[in-house]
Structure formats: structure tokens, C-alpha cells
Please model this.
Amino acid sequence: MIPYERLLLDLVQSDERIVIVTAENRGHMRSLPPVLGNRFIDVGIAEQTMIGVAAGLALRGRIPIVHALASFVTLRPFEFIRDDVGIAGLPVIMVGMVPGVLSDGNGPTHQAIDDVQVMRGIPNVNVFCPADTAELIAGLPELIKAGGAWYVRYLAGENVVEQHAPFAVGTAETVVEANQPVVTILTYGYLTKTAIDAAGILANRGIATRVVNMRTLKPIDADAIVRAAAESHVVVTLEDHFRTGGLRSIVAETLLDARLTADVRSIDLGHTWFTPGRLGEVLDCHGLTADHISNAIAHHVEHSRELLDA
Amino acid sequence: MTDVTLNHLQQQALRVREHILRMSTNGGCFTGASLSCTDLLVYLYNEVLNIGADMLDNPSRDYLLLSKGHDVPALYGLFAELGFIDAARLDNHLSVTDHVYWHPNRAIPGVEFHSGSLGHLLSVGIGIALDIRLRGGSNRVFVVVGDGELNEGTIWEGCLTAAAYGLDNLIVIVDRNHFQANVRTEDLIPLEPITTKFEAFGWTAHTVDGHSFTALEDCFQGALVNAGRPTAVVATTQRGAGVPSIAERADRWFCNFTAEEVGNLIDELHGRAAAELTSETLIVR
Model:
């Protein structure tokens, strides 16, 4: 049993409200159907029905945790989420598998790189983007405690730090600290590990870099963003998401609200779908390796300094 | 059915239709679709559903979900008659001070779930029915859908899922008034044979005259449900039923009459002179 399966089993066994639902996406829960019995519901490849069913279960006091590929759990049933979860304000947890660059070779239909944008736009729906397995496992029970509806950008990868800060909804964590940082990288999810590696390269090049894992993008830790703008010369947003609607947009909105501006460099997937392929090649092709990122940031810092000196 | 019961149902249905007509002014409402399902709702709430003003939050109640939500004036008119809400609230129709508008809102006692966008509440009903079964309950879930709503793919998606789970506590009622919003169903996306379609999806299906209380009695008190299968009841109705001058008229879907016309339509409802209607009525919402 993988850690996520163990977590779901623990949740089902310890909380009678929890029901595990899937639209025939079982890749990360193959061992669960026989042990969960009728608390495991597979509606078939029917994402709209899955969200409606989840709303019905929630009306009866359940907390359904529903699963499909990230692009299919967000976009196919979008109106069902908006109407039956968002308007109703029901506690449904929607887990999107292989989000962002993780869909590697599937092609653009499967690329959930607009998921943060669409899900955070729905009133009453929150967004959690774990950076690794440990954070997924620590965070999910906290979402349930916090209540409400959540989109979870599923990630069960290797742990990016030895010890995460205790998980709290709406609270970012600093995963690489730096005194008087020149750069603060704000990031989330899969690229958190890449950001940590890039910060190491930058430090070796004399550019002190702090890395902040945002963890929940809604609610957002606005203080962490304001602090990044106040305490570092350059703020970098790093995400495997379209440039629009994700963390870059959140940072812009947050700084606008705080009447602040900042020197922001955004590293993301721009305005179109990425070239499908093996994950390593995709990351290289789109400038999302630690080397590419550190080079881009170093170049930006240099350019900013030239501007300041001129 | 006793004569007393029959008379009670008929009188209540008349009063619900009056409520609908009174809501068809000063902004208007979806009059035709509301009139088509009036008798169905009156019958279900009085004779079938285990529900009452004192058990609206009781987890063992029967659920009725109005998936074709634009007929909500019929539901609210009935709720006023059943004492779920104060009849005076109907006067708040389209006032921002209340929640009485063109589609159901859960803030109104008795409304199980909101609707508006078509094709949603079958899946919500499946979720409720699954939970009832998880808890070993014997209550049932009724989902009222429009015939035009059968265009929505999620209805058929839900039909597959409900049959797969053998939800014999789930009953879909099709308000078969033969109209979409603007045109007759069979002139656009033909639906017939509807019962055959449900049967092919693994459901038990019936047809019934949706305006005859005795026919409804025969259907719902008879062998309605087969164990292990969900049930569909296709209720043949007439859009605008009870008020001939707006019945079966494509242009009387959404109606916004003058107060005088409403008075005349209520007269017509009671078998007095036919109403003369001059209001512009083809308002496509």
C-alpha cells in the first residue's frame, strides 16, 4: 500500500463521513476497493456524474474525496463543481491526478496547467498544491478539519525537505532560508524541489535565494508574498501552469491589494500547452530544470542591477 | 382513491395553479412548465412522499429533487399549501428581500437542492440514494426531470451509473409535456421511445397520465419498483395544463402578464370565460 492509500484507509476508518469516490481512476488506490467495501464508489468514466454524486453524498453529511486526472476533474465537470459544490458550499475534496508537467507524454488534452486558475475562481472552492508525499499526507487531514471544498493538485513524489513546517491552511513555508535574500522564489507543487536545487546553484553564484513553498494557493498566504516583495530585490514566481491565473496572477493581485509593486520574474508555461514527451525532456525543453531556472534568475538579477546602476 | 382524497387533490392543484398564475406577472415566471408538473407534484407530496412540514430535515424523509428547476412556482405554490412556507412569501417573488425567484433555492424550506442548469440533479440524487443505502435506510429519492432535459448527456451518464449500482430507491419522473423551451421535443431532438431507452439502460420504466390522480394512484401504488433496478416514470402532461389559452403554446413558456390578465386567467382556470391575452409573451430566457 502506498502512503496515499494508507492515508485514505485511515481517514475512512477513523471518520465515518469520509467516502472515497473515483471516475475509474484507480492508479493510486489499487488496493483500496476490497478493503473499503461500499465506502469506495466508482461511478465509471463520468466526471460530471461523479461531482453530482459527491454533492448528494455531502448533502447527507459525507465528505467525499473524489478522483480523476487533474484536467478531467476540473474542466469536464466544471459547471457541476461551480453549481453543485461551489454554490452549495459543500465539503467535497477533488483530487486531480498527474497535474501540470506530470502528464508528460499525454498531450495537451491531459495537461492540467490551468487547474489553479479555474478552481480558485469558484467561490467556496479552495486549492491545495502539495510539494511532496509528506505534505500531501500531512495536509489532507487538515483540509478536512478546515472544512469546505478543496481542489488538491495531487503529488506523491519524493520528499523535498527533511522536515516540513507544521501544515496549516493558508500558511506558506520557507523551505530554503537566506539572510538578506536577493531573490525569493515563490512556488508550489512539483517544482518546489527544482526551486530548492536552483537556489543552491544561485547561492554558489553569490545570489542569496530564499524559497517559499506556498502550499495552499487559496487561501493564499498574502503575508508571505508581501514579505518576499519587501525583503528581496527580485521575486520569482515558479509554476508548471499557464502564466495566467496561477501564482503569478495571485502575486499580482496580492501586491495590488497591498499597494506594493515588485521586480517580478515569472517562470511558467507561458500562454500555450507544453510539448509532450518524457518528463525530463519536457522540463528541459520548457526551461524548468534547476539549471535553466537558476540561469534565468541570475540573468534577471544581473539585468535588474544594471538598470539600478544606470 | 376515495372521493374525499380526489377532491382534496383537485382543489389543492387548483390553488397551486392560482399561485403559479399570480407569480406570472411583475417580472413573470416559467408558467407553462410549472402548470404541466402541478398535478404530479401535488400527487407525490400528498400521497407518495414520506415528508411533512415537521420532518423537512429528518434524514429518513423521502427526497424530491426538482431538476427542471424553472417549474419552481409549482413547487413553491405547493409548499405554501402544505405549510412548508408561509403563503405570503409567494408575494416576494423576484424581490431581493427573499429567495423566491425563477429557480429553486435551498434557503426555502422543503427545497432539497438548487437547480437551474439542466441535467444536474439525477447525479445528485444518485449520491443521496447511495448514502441512504450505505446507512441501510428505506427512504427513496425522486428526481423530476423535464423531457427537454433528456437532451443533456449527464442524464444518460447518470442512468448508467444508477443501473450499475442497482439503485431501486431512485425514481426519475419525466414531466413529458412535449416541449423544450421554444419548440416541441419531437420536432427538434426526438425522444421517443423514452421508456424503451430507460429500459435499455437497465431501468424499470412506466408511463402514466400526469394529470390524472387516479392514474397516478394506479402507477405509484402498484408494482412500481423492481428490486435492484432504478425506476423511471414518464408522466404524459400538457404544458400550460389547466389554462387552455396558454396550453401547448410555444410562445407561452415564459409569461409576464398584466395583473388584469392574471385575474382573467384565474377565471379561466376556474372554468369561467377564456382570458383575452394581449401581453407580449414570447420572452426567451
